[in-house]
Amino acid sequence: MSEQTSLYQLKNLGNTTINWLRAIGIRDIHQLSQVGAVNAYMRIKERGFNVSKVVLYALHGALNDEDWKNLSNSQKKELLQLAESAKTEATD
């Protein structure tokens, strides 16, 4: 994938998630990879959008070109722990 790959070309991302990403200033794969799945997820939540943990999994899968449903339980757990750590750091 090139740096300018459209968000629409990535796995797991539908119109709503792409609109949330655009709302936080992410417009392509390059920007998403710079921010990372966890930080993008946290920024979306901070904007007040009602997102589930599946969005975190979907963002991670999009960056790794894999369906989020194929993530192992340990990968999902690690992502949630990273998000929780980011949340804790933001409130300190």
From TrEMBL:
Boundaries of every TfoX C-terminal domain copy: 4-81
Chain segments annotated as transmembrane: none
Segments forming a coiled coil: none
Protein name: DNA transformation protein
